[in-house]
Amino acid sequence: MSKSKGSRTERELLHLFWEKKWLATRMAGSGVMPFPCPDLLVGKKGRVLAIECKSGKTTRYIAKQQVEELIDFAKGFGAEPWIAIRFDNMGWFFLKPNNLDFTGKNYSVSKELALSKGINFTEIAKN
User: Fold this and answer.
1) 29-61: per-residue pLDDT in tens?
2) What are the backbone angles phi and psi of residue 125, rounded to the nearest 5°?
3) Which one of 5, 7, 10, 38 has the fewest beta carbons within 10 angstroms of its own beta carbon?
4) Which of helix, strand or coil describes residue 117?
5) Strand, helix or coil at 78?
6) What positions carry a catalytic annotation?
């Protein structure tokens, strides 16, 4: 996936949260700066989500280190760690890191996993 497509999908999700009256910010430089930080940080009524965003057509692989850094950041910040994934023509799904498949080197999310263990945007953004 290109950097511009990744940025576009992050902004798409950011706008969806704002439409549901969540406070949301996109963390500029996530993935390139030396400090762990999620793609999005969103909150509403005391609930805070640290979100790593992914998108694609088929199974997406996520580096083990990226997932570990998301978990560490969320723990230190007092947030819930989530992986948000949008497959073409399927909308957004959210998975906890412990629901991802682990290949021994990386984590992965397939469409089937997103459908079986993920929750959709409406569910995560409800009050």
Assistant:
1) 656 667 888 999 999 999 999 999 999 899 999
2) -95, 5
3) 5
4) helix
5) coil
6) 30
